UniProtKB/TrEMBL annotation:
Signal peptide: none annotated. Keywords: Transferase. Residues 112-240 form the GST C-terminal domain. This is Glutathione S-transferase. The keyword Lipid biosynthesis does not apply. Coiled coil: none annotated. Pfam families: GST_C, GST_N_2. InterPro entries: Glutathione-S-Trfase_C-like, Glutathione-S-Trfase_C_sf, Glutathione_S-Trfase, Glutathione_S-Trfase_N, GST_C, Thioredoxin-like_sf. The keyword Hydrolase does not apply. Residues 25-107 form the GST N-terminal domain.
Length: 240
């Protein structure tokens, strides 16, 4: 059963934030909860019951262009984590793999290299094809672009491109409960964290009964509800 991890969500001045965080031995996460990449990390942490402190950084909170933050991630993007006294880590895919390796069960992230590679194969596929094929080409134009500036033909083309990969997911999920097998794994974090917004926004979607069944299964997980099914209203473009 999912047990809610110990979480502290903090917004404070950047100077105080980085000053206090140095002495914090709990795992720390920098990044706003409306970032889909941050959501993948927070969902993973919740599934693995890892206590952490989370700092709201980026977008309306700012703080990601300070010298202190850029020293941790020169890209100025979120998320970043720091686990105890270890070096800060950025890039969400690297972060969730680290968390899986350190805190995950053998079912979630197998120790056997061959079995782990099968999970990682689908995790990488989901991130590079589904998540990246949805977020910038579809979600941003539909949600983060004013209606008056949207290009419907371009959006339809992006949906058609994404459909090819969702059809692959549909086929795989006709054969197994989760993306990489019968157990919930890191691959499901990488695929699943894009699905809430995919099914929530106003676009045309093909009927895919297996993908829809899979999504309903994810929605039944409290960690998914808490960390992924988060309002993105603050990201919506305002009409000019």
């Amino acid at each position: 059963m999912f047990r809610k991890p110990l979480i502290a969500s903090i917004y404070t001045s950047p100077s105080r934030l980085f000053h206090t965080s140095v002495a914090n031995k709990m795992l720390q996460v920098w990044g706003r909860r409306t970032s889909s990449n941050v959501q993948a990390v927070l969902w993973c942490l919740a599934e693995l019951n890892v206590p952490y402190t989370q700092y709201d950084i980026g977008h309306r909170f700012g703080g990601n262009n300070t010298p202190e933050y850029l020293a941790m991630n020169p890209n100025g993007l979120v998320p970043v984590i720091r686990d105890g006294d270890d070096e800060p880590l950025f890039e969400s895919s690297a972060i969730v793999r680290y968390l899986a390796a350190k805190y995950g069960s053998d079912a979630f992230w197998p120790k056997d290299p061959a079995k782990r590679a099968q999970v990682d194969k689908w995790a990488e596929w989901a991130k590079t094809n589904v998540f990246l094929g949805f977020t910038a080409p579809i979600f941003w134009p539909v949600v983060r672009t004013p209606k008056s500036k949207q290009n419907p033909e371009q959006i339809r083309g992006a949906i058609a491109s994404l459909d090819k990969f969702l059809d692959i997911a549909e086929t795989e999920l006709s054969k197994k409960t989760f993306l990489a097998g019968e157990e919930f794994t890191l691959a499901d974090i990488q695929l699943g964290h894009a699905l809430f917004r995919y099914f929530d926004i106003d676009i045309e979607r093909k009927k895919r009964p297996n993908l829809e069944r899979y999504y309903e299964t994810l929605k039944g997980r409290k960690a998914f509800q808490d960390m992924v099914m988060v309002s993105y209203d603050e990201l919506r473009a305002k009409e000019e």
